[in-house]
Structure formats: structure tokens, C-alpha cells
């Protein structure tokens, strides 16, 4: 005769009772305040995550997450004996929330793309060595930095209370976005007879500052607003660097993803500072370090020179390209400062790096 553990025997005993007609059914009377609530789509886009936040108790996002510490969904009745998992210790809404996060999630799932299917790889043509090497070096650098924006959310996601599931859902889409960005830039480096070239110590300094930030909001400010903000401006001006329809399409597709990440980070910092204005100096200090790191990265030869070659149209026109990069750099800094102002943080008089590059 098979012998089972006491836990398994209890389940088997319960199954015997059910077969004998003894049912519980208490769950049918649980959570009466949530019964009868109906979520409906607002428009032709369908039933979005944001639509669920317009109905009854299910749209009430608490300032502090449930103390039960489990994965029970927000709005469900949680039995008193539900075990806590012990890892969901970010329980303050202000530490992760942004008022646009549900809408950004809805957009993210609607606009997923495939680097295999949606990039016209057949339009790649042989290029002069200097231009192909410059593009391969640019793609090497972008491959190196892109996945930090996946690793950072992954580091913090499992700490976030499930009552803020909108944030967790959005960060999951960001991780998928960044995997695709790493993939597409690596593909471009390898797809036209070039390959990966030189990694960047400057990149590693910035990435280390992001991944070792002491809390989620400082990490988000460094990554979503500063680092991804600089990259977003780069992609928006991708016509300056693109050599074919392949690069143009890559930059456009990546740009739409980066725009969501930056929009979340900006509105998260705004929400955070409204609740914790006393933390503004902490954010100023971490951004000072980040600005110095991104400036060093931007001026590294393996970062600046390939971009200048691409912008100028060849190594013989590299100085013309550097003049264009000066314009791009100023645009990156100005847009970064503007996003911080939107978030309620003015760094215009405290910027740790030049607003414009020397002529």
C-alpha cells in the first residue's frame, strides 16, 4: 500500500469528502464588494489595463500595499492564513508609481515588434570599410548598454508589492523591449560583413552606477531619464547616423520603445517628489554622478568617433560629423533638463557637464 506524507493524506481525505457530496463553496460568498463590477472597453482599442482602474474597488490603488505579502491580486479577498512570501518589501506606492503607467503598458503590448520580421534586412548593401566599421562600432556600444535597462527592472521587480501590478506589468514589457534592442543591434553588427568591435569602459561606469543605485527611484532617475533620455534623443536624430533603410527602421522602432520608458521615468520621479520633496537632494546627487559618467562615455573615442564618421559621411569628413554631434549633444542635454523640470527637479544651474561642447 502506498504511503504518503501527512500533507498529501489531508488532501486525499478532502477529495474523499468531496466525492461524498461534502462541498465547501464558501468562496462563492467572498468579496461581496467586488461582485457586479463590470469592466468595459473605452474605445476600439479594446479592454486595456487602464480601463480596469475605472471600476469599483478594483481601480483603487492604495498608498501602501497589502501587508499580507502574498501574490494575491489587488481587489481579491485575502484569507487571514495566506502565507507571506517575504520578498515584497517595496510597499509604498510613491516609490514606484507613475500616473501614466497603465496606459504605457497598454501601448507597450500593442506595439511589440520583431527584429526578424519588421526590419528590411534585404536592403543592406556593401559599404566602404570606414562606414561599415563605424556602424558596427555604434552597434557594439548600443548592444553593450541596452540590456542594463532590462537588468535594472529585473533587479527591483520582485520586490514590488503586487498591489502595484501595473508597474510590474510595465517593467516586464521594458525587459522584453531591451532584449529586442540588444538583439537588433547585435544583428546589425553581424549582418553586413562587419562584426562587433570594441567594448567601452565608459559604458561600464554608467551601467555600474545604475545597477548599484541604492534604491529604485534613484536607479530609475539615472536610467529612465538620464541614460535612456540621451539614447532617445539619439534615436530621434537617427537619420543623421543611418546608412540605409535598415538603420532608419531600427532607430524608429527602438525610439517608440525608449519613449515609453522615458515617459514612465519622468512621471515616476514627478510622483515621487510630490510625495517626498525632502529627497530632491538625493536625486540631484545621484544625477551629478550620472552626468559625469555619461559625459565621459560620450567623449570616448569608440563612442564619439564612429558617430562622427557616420554623421559626416566617412572618415575624411569626420570633423564635419563632429560639428553635427555637437548639435546632437546639446539637444540631448536640453531635452534631459526639460524632462527633469517636468518631473519637478531643476538642474539647469547645477548641471555637472557642459551644456555645449567646445568648438
**What is the chain-wise order of helices and strands?**
HHHHHHHHHHHH
What's the assembly state of these chains? single chain
Q: From the 3D coordinates, which CATH architecture of the domain at 99-343 would you assign?
A: Orthogonal Bundle
What is the number of strand segments? 0
Distance between the termini: 87 Å
Number of helices: 12
Query: What's the average pLDDT?
Result: 93
CATH topology of the domain at 99-343: Ribonucleotide Reductase, subunit A
CATH superfamily of the domain at 99-343: Ribonucleotide Reductase, subunit A
Kindly summarize this structure in a few lines.
By secondary structure, this protein is an all-alpha fold. 57% of the residues lie in helices and 0% in strands.
Structure description:
It is a single chain. The protein is mainly α and 359 residues long. The protein is elongated. It has a domain at 99-343: Ribonucleotide Reductase, subunit A (Orthogonal Bundle). The chain is 57% helix and 0% strand. The model has no long low-confidence stretch (mean pLDDT 93).
Keywords:
single chain, 359 residues, mainly alpha, Ribonucleotide Reductase, subunit A, 12 helices, elongated
Give the helices and strands, then pairings.
Elements: H1 6-19, H2 49-52, H3 101-110, H4 129-146, H5 148-157, H6 165-190, H7 201-211, H8 216-236, H9 245-275, H10 280-299, H11 301-312, H12 318-343
Helix pairs in contact: 3-6, 3-9, 4-6, 4-11, 5-6, 5-8, 6-9, 7-8, 7-10, 8-9, 8-10, 8-12, 9-12, 11-12
